[in-house]
Design goal:
InterPro entries: ACOX_C_alpha1 (IPR055060), Acyl-CoA_ox_N (IPR029320), Acyl-CoA_Oxase/DH_mid-dom_sf (IPR046373), Acyl-CoA_oxidase (IPR012258), Acyl-CoA_oxidase_C (IPR002655), AcylCo_DH-like_C (IPR036250), AcylCoA_DH/ox_N_sf (IPR037069), AcylCoA_DH/oxidase_NM_dom_sf (IPR009100). By secondary structure, the chain is of the alpha+beta class. Helices cover 55% and strands 9% of the residues. The protein has 2 domains: 165 residues, Beta Barrel (Butyryl-CoA Dehydrogenase, subunit A, domain 2); 318 residues, Butyryl-CoA Dehydrogenase, subunit A, domain 3 (Up-down Bundle). Helix 11 packs antiparallel against helix 13. The longest helix is centred in the middle third of the chain and has 36 residues. It starts with 5 loop residues before the first helix and ends in a 5-residue tail after the last helix. The structure holds ligand LAWDYWNQ and flavin-adenine dinucleotide (FAD).
């Protein structure tokens, strides 16, 4: 391995804590870190994983094809049973497709989970092993050209015919064509198709059906089906997001996934699930996973790149006539990066929380106890929106902080950005998800107004909140939490009272709701902000005695919270809760905290523990040898394969010389 750039080494030497120990905390324990590193090391030693053409120097069809090569490699490994632990499989995939979506990504994240959670026991026994063993490859096909958000308006129909005990799948309009499902265009031979179920003329709404799309022999498309790729996108170019059109395609009755609702041979519909949104369960799972696995990890990688690079990059003067400083020593550069780094840690702890909570509550739901489903739906929706937006903005901030080189694909940042920003849209567009959380907040507000006790994430709504902020120079977690509680409670209440007032003035509820929806999305955002602050504080409280790590995490917590207050100053001050003096103090504390954190900046990003291969960044290399590798990168560019490019002979030469050698 090449010698580490002394500018980066000095940062590591000056850190006040052991990065390894912080990595253990982030991974959820030393054993988890060790296992992840083992899986990554095995993958990194495999030329099928790290070899192959350079991602950025391929065309899109080549990128897709290479991703399929890797998919086959993954499936062969998985078939040996070595990834029986889902976490192992996840680490392996992250190393194989760094910041890319695998053509089989939907198979593992949505197709299989839907089969497992929406099938009857017999169906599960039939389909899940086939999918687990990759004998069939599937996707999750829900969104249509005309509707992604409004699931009640999906137009694909599954009409039951009792005589033959079959459903007939049909796409009646242009807008009913399934559009966007990942891996649908070229890779999958099966899909879970969400379609409106019609029995004897009655529409029972969206239900999941398992449908074969292509032959298992030669991959040709099944009669009555039209399927293909939707073309190049802003990112996600290794995956074949597809379209799918049905022309009266017949499937057996048994292909309705019947855990939540059964259709008997004569067409009798029997609902089993207690909650009518049971068919939406896979979306909750993915939203809960996006927080850590997509939003936070994308941001952690961007922070790693930008912080390391900012300690390698020297520019301008700090001391007149003095040597060029590391750019991270400029206060403005710290202001660009350190609050983003603090938010990354904040999101990480919320991500760990929602992942664990999802598995706990889902277990209860599987046992038939659905009491906590509304809470899970609201929190997973809100956190998905809050963290994906924050990460998207943070990644862009990291890119800008890298100056000109940040604009090059060599930085790795454009790819991280385009992959991550899709998470603001897929699995529920962010505003739409905030409005789902807002419904929950409105209900909870009404409960609190009636004097009832609200619980879980909204417990604070029925508490007596402080009228005056008691935040002082010590910035204790309790006073910070109280400030965020006050802000969220006030914004929820204000929006709720306006809905009530509009209704009292004669507006129908739906109109009152729409007229308050901007306020409500801000209230939902404030609620999520509070929740993320709370989970960060909980993590600090639960930490075992690792004083050095506790100190630096406390500084990050305070920075995250103070920066949030300065960014949303009006929310905290306009009702007189926080004084101007307190706000001024908080603003100055942001600057002091940045100075406190600065010496540990590199150690804090090293703790995310990303191998260079996953970062895919010349700027963010662990060894900090940026310039020689930027030069190498440019030399490898396909345009430099020949001294004179073909386009010269085709276009420039005739113009410049009046003759052509072609
Ligand atoms: C160690 C690690 C191991 C882990 C490894 C796993 C790693 C996995 C990593 C995966 C990460 C990323 C992969 C990314 C790939 C994703 C690719 C993208 C896929 C997709 O996009 S699929 C399509 C997704 N589509 C959507 O999300 C559609 C959004 N729209 C909706 O959800 C709904 O239509 C709606 C919620 C907006 C509205 O629905 P509607 O039926 O009209 O209902 P309403 O009338 O508004 O509400 C009625 C009540 O129902 C409640 N409700 C709504 N949704 C749900 C739900 N899902 N569950 C429970 N309850 C729900 C709603 O709140 C209302 O309740 P109320 O009346 O207020 O009480
Ligand atoms: C990269 C990517 C991968 C995807 N993968 C899959 C997949 O595998 N399977 C699949 O089925 N789908 C997939 N999708 C589709 C995705 O789930 C939808 O695009 C997403 O749910 C948003 O729906 P939409 O496109 O209909 O947006 P729209 O709902 O049309 O959004 C447009 C605008 O309208 C606003 N809006 C819509 N409804 C409301 C409302 N009720 N109140 C206020 N504002 C509203 C939105 O906030 C947004 O600003 C994918 C999409 C992308 C981008």
């Amino acid at each position: 391995m090449a010698a580490v750039n002394p500018d980066l080494q000095s940062e590591r030497d000056g850190a006040t804590f052991d990065t390894n120990k912080l990595t253990f905390l982030l991974d959820g324990g030393e054993g988890m870190t060790e296992r992840r590193r083992e899986v990554e090391a095995e993958a990194l030693a495999d030329p099928e994983v790290t070899g192959g053409p350079h991602y950025h120097f391929m065309s899109r069809p080549e990128q897709y094809s290479d991703a399929v090569r890797k998919a086959v490699h993954y499936m062969k490994q998985a078939k040996t049973g070595k990834f029986d632990n889902p976490a192992d499989a996840h680490w392996y995939r992250n190393t194989l497709w760094p910041n890319e979506m695998a053509p089989i990504g939907l198979h593992t994240t949505m197709f299989l989970p839907t089969l497992e959670n929406n099938s009857s026991p017999e169906q599960k026994e039939k389909w899940a092993p086939l999918a687990k063993d990759f004998k069939i490859i599937g996707t999750y096909s829900q969104t249509e050209m005309g509707h992604g958000t409004n699931l009640k308006a999906l137009e694909t129909t599954a009409t039951y015919e009792p005589e033959l005990e079959q459903f007939i799948l049909h796409s009646p309009t242009l807008s009913s064509i399934k559009w966007w499902p990942g891996g649908l265009g070229k890779t999958s031979n099966f899909a879970v198709v969400m379609a409106s179920m019609i029995i004897k003329g009655k529409n029972y709404g969206m239900h999941p059906f398992i449908v074969q799309l292509r032959s298992l022999e030669d991959h040709t498309v099944i009669t009555g089906i039209e399927v293909g790729d939707i073309g190049p996108k802003f990112g996600f170019n290794t995956i074949d997001n597809g379209y799918l059109k049905f022309d009266h395609v017949r499937i057996p009755r048994e292909n309705l996934l019947m855990k939540n609702a059964v259709v008997e041979p004569d067409g009798t519909y029997v609902r089993i699930a207690k909650n009518e949104k049971a068919a939406y369960s896979t979306m909750i799972f993915v939203r809960a996973m996006i927080v850590l696995e997509v939003a936070t990890r994308g941001l952690a990688q961007a922070c790693t790149i930008a912080v390391r690079y900012s300690c390698v990059r020297r520019q301008s003067e700090l001391v007149p006539g003095g040597p060029e400083p590391k750019v991270l020593d400029f206060q403005t550069q710290q202001y660009k990066l350190l609050p983003v780094l603090a938010s990354c840690y904040a999101y990480w702890f919320s991500g760990l929380f929602i992942r664990m909570t999802y598995f706990q509550i889902n277990y209860e739901i599987q046992q038939g106890n659905i009491d906590l489903l509304p809470e899970l739906h609201a929190v997973s929706s809100g956190l998905k929106a809050f963290t994906s937006y924050g990460s998207m903005a943070g990644i862009e901030q990291c890119r800008l902080a890298c100056g000109g080189h940040g604009f090059s694909q060599a930085s790795g940042l454009p790819k991280i950005y385009t992959t991550m920003t899709a998470g603001c849209t897929y699995e529920g567009e962010n505003s739409v998800l905030y409005l789902q959380m807002a419904r929950y907040l409105m209900k909870s507000f009404l409960q609190a107004e009636k004097g009832e006790t609200t619980t879980n994430s909204v417990a604070y709504l029925s508490k007596k909140n402080l009228d005056k902020c008691v935040l002082g120079a010590t910035l204790s977690p309790d006073t910070i939490i109280a400030a965020y509680e006050h802000r969220a409670a006030r914004l929820v209440r204000k929006a709720g009272l306006r809905v009530n007032a509009l209704e009292a003035a004669g507006k129908p509820y739906h109109e009152a709701w729409n007229l308050t929806s901007v306020q409500f999305t801000k209230a939902a955002e404030a609620h999520c902000h509070y929740f993320v602050v709370l989970k960060f504080a909980d993590t600090l409280e639960e930490m075992e005695d690792e004083a050095e790590i506790h100190n630096v995490l406390l500084q990050l917590f305070q920075l995250y919270a103070c920066y949030g207050i300065t960014n949303y100053a009006a929310d905290f001050t306009e009702d007189g809760f926080m004084s101007q003096e307190q706000l001024d103090m908080v603003r100055l504390r942001v600057l002091d905290l940045m100075a406190d954190i600065r010496p540990n900046a590199v150690a804090l990003v090293d703790s995310f523990d990303y191998p260079d291969h996953i970062l895919g960044s010349v700027l963010g290399r662990y060894d900090g040898n940026v310039y020689e590798n930027l030069y190498k990168w440019a030399k490898d560019s396909p345009l430099n394969k020949t001294e004179v490019h073909d386009s010269y002979y085709k276009y420039l030469q005739p113009m410049i010389t009046g003759k052509s050698n072609l």
